[in-house]
Specification:
Elements (H helix, E strand, L loop, with lengths): L1 E2 L2 E2 L4 E7 L6 E8 L2 H19 L3 H17 L2 H11 L3 H24 L6 E3 L13 E7 L3 E4 L13 H9 L3 E4 L5 H17 L7 E4 L5 H8 L5 E5 L2 H12 L7 E4 L5 E4 L1 H19 L12 E5 L2 H15 L4 E2 L3 H15 L5 E5 L7 E2 L2 E6 H6 L11 E7 L2 H10 L3 E7 L5 H14 E6 L38 E7 L20 E3 L2 E3 L3
Parallel strand pairs: 5-22, 7-8, 7-10, 8-9, 10-11, 12-13, 12-19, 13-18, 17-18, 19-20
Antiparallel strand pairs: 1-2, 3-4, 5-6, 6-21, 14-16, 15-17, 22-23
Helix pairs in contact: 2-4, 2-6, 3-4, 3-6, 4-5, 9-10
The protein binds nicotinamide-adenine-dinucleotide and 2,5-dioxopentanoic acid.
Length: about 525
């Protein structure tokens, strides 16, 4: 573990990485944190906060870039360890490393640009009648130390140096990360890259700590610690809601930004099916089986009106899926819950098994495609539960109204995809307002897997896809989760923070009396 500048061997229990492919325990053995380790990490983060939040933009941006470079400098040791622990192939891990590094570098740009501070200045109007207007200035400031829970399914881009850590550090918040026990070796390597950047950037050691937990006590204690002011989490609905409860019951409740579960409905319109049902069917299976289906954006639900087009889609999807190789899943636990989910669907008396992929061995997940009627789907809420892996359910709808009824019945989702031809635009236009209320991202003629790390990305959605549908965990808006506004009224310039001073020393773009003004 890394507790500030110290590298610490945990003493609570034994945590070992497991070869995802074979189940073999990996060296070295890691140990979980004690309550003292937890307390030290939170104390150091609290002590570091004021210094870190007052770092100038260039120092903070360079720090983020140093993390990125240190991760790259880990070279193949990181890639190979991550492949072994996650079972994910080299191209995926190398691609995910590039995404992680790119995310850190993008946030460095955000910090340098300074627009995230949202500086607003309403100059005083002493002669205004009937009442003078005071001098009012505001900016966003970081909330304080943030707890980050690494995700199993993206051991780099959503884990120790993933989007939650990158956006929190960019906001000026120290981070106490809780490693995911599915990839302890990967977590240690990435944690070393961050700790090295803290030191080389001359920052207080408490800016980053990494803890392991041999159970759940440390993770729960982290969320409950009064010095932690926000939580980032990606994982199960049970895990996310458990942490939300702890956070809500604190003396000072704090937000938990949990990304939890989504079945990401894909709606196939008549015109699109008429034009390209077979191509959609093949592309769908590619998305469904990406990363052994362990994407939170996985297309777990297909909606379409019954007819020839849907039948053509189903035939193409079935033929393609039958050839899909089974892939190693992240952990034996995730593999087991996937198999249980698939068995439950296969045994459901209203669900038809359309196709199964090639059978696998050990902890490989066999792809599965099921179908049911909209009537059965609406009658059984269990049918909209996420089956985390390469499994999807097609819902045959008798008409357009039934499609809408199913969408109405869905919980909050991360994404919805519509496959349309121009002839479908009128119906699509009717459905879009409803989709907006249900999801964080709407796609046309694609699938939700493959989240672009960009300024306009929303990787979030109404509960229960995430804990707070107003936020995103990917993209530059992710920084907003770890900021809060402060207003300064009638302060003399000498007392104002640099960001809101008349002189604008950091040359920020600011809102002056409601108008955006670039620094000269
Ligand atoms: N939708 C998604 O983005 C997504 C991503 C990963 C996993 N999942 C779902 O979660 C299941 C399990 O996967 P996972 O291990 O990544 O998720 P998980 O929720 O079990 O664990 C995620 C992290 O949170 C911690 N945690 C979980 N519950 C906790 C609790 N009650 N108290 C303290 N800490 C707790 C774990 O130790 C781990 O570090 C998967 O089968 C899948 O269904 C969903
Ligand atoms: O698993 C959650 C994130 C999915 C993602 O980032 C992607 O689809 O690229």
């Amino acid at each position: 573990m890394f507790i500030g500048a110290r590298a610490v061997q945990g003493t609570q229990g034994e945590i070992r990485g497991i070869s995802a492919a074979t189940g073999e325990k990996l060296d070295p053995a890691f140990g979980g944190a004690t309550k003292d380790d937890l307390d030290d990490s939170c104390r150091l983060a609290d002590e570091a906060f004021d210094t870190y939040r007052n770092t100038d933009p260039e120092t903070r941006a360079a720090f983020l870039e140093a993390i990125a470079q240190n991760i790259l400098d880990l070279g193949d040791e990181l890639v190979e360890r991550c492949m072994t622990e996650s079972g994910l192939p080299r191209p995926r891990i190398e691609g995910e490393r590039g995404r992680t590094v790119g995310q850190l570098r993008l946030f460095a740009q955000v910090v340098r640009a300074g627009r995230y501070l949202d500086v607003r200045i309403d100059p005083a109007m002493p002669d205004r009648q009937p009442l003078p207007r005071p001098d009012l200035r505001s900016r966003m400031i970081p909330v304080g130390p943030v707890a980050v829970f690494g995700a199993s399914n993206f051991p780099l881009a959503f884990s120790v140096a993933g989007g939650d850590t990158a956006s929190a550090l960019a906001a000026g918040c120290p981070v106490v990360a809780k490693a995911h026990s599915a990839h302890p070796g990967t977590s240690e390597l990435v944690g070393s890259a961050i700790q090295k950047a803290v030191a080389s950037s001359g920052l207080p050691e408490g800016v980053f700590s990494l803890l392991f937990d041999s159970g759940r006590e440390i993770g729960q204690g982290l969320v409950a610690d009064h010095r932690i002011k926000a939580v980032g989490f990606t994982g199960s609905r049970g895990g996310g809601t458990a942490l939300m409860k702890i956070a809500a019951e604190r003396k000072e409740p704090i937000p938990v930004y949990a990304e939890m579960s989504s079945i990401n409905p894909v709606i196939l319109f008549e015109g699109a099916l008429k034009e390209r049902a077979e191509a959609i069917g093949k592309a769908f299976v590619g998305s469904l089986t990406l990363g052994a289906g362990q994407f939170c954006t996985n297309p777990g639900l297909i909606l379409a009106e019954e007819g020839e087009g849907l039948n053509t889609f189903l035939s193409a999807a079935a033929e393609t899926l039958k050839e899909a190789a089974a892939s190693t899943m992240l952990t034996p636990g995730i593999h087991q819950s996937y198999c249980q989910g698939v068995e439950a669907l296969a045994g459901h008396n209203q669900v038809e098994t359309v196709a199964r992929g090639k059978a696998g061995e050990n902890f490989q997940g066999q792809a599965a495609l099921f179908a049911t009627s909209s009537e059965a789907f609406l009658a059984d809420p269990h049918l909209q539960e996420e089956v985390f892996g390469s499994s999807s359910l097609v819902v045959r709808c008798p008409d357009r109204d039934a499609v809408r009824d199913v969408v109405e019945a869905l919980e909050g989702q991360l994404t919805a995809a519509i496959h349309i031809a121009e002839s479908d635009y009128p119906q699509a236009k009717e459905l879009l307002p409803l989709l907006e209320k249900k999801v964080g991202r709407i796609l046309v003629n694609g699938f939700g897997t493959g989240v672009e790390v960009a300024h306009a990305m929303v990787h979030g959605g109404p509960y229960p896809s995430t804990a707070d549908g107003r936020s995103t965990s990917v993209g530059t808006m992710a920084i907003d989760r770890f900021l809060r506004p402060v207003s300064y009224q009638d302060l003399p310039d000498a007392l104002l923070p640099d960001d809101v001073k008349d002189s604008n020393p950091h040359k920020l773009e600011r809102l002056m009396d409601g108008k955006a003004v670039l620094a000269d």
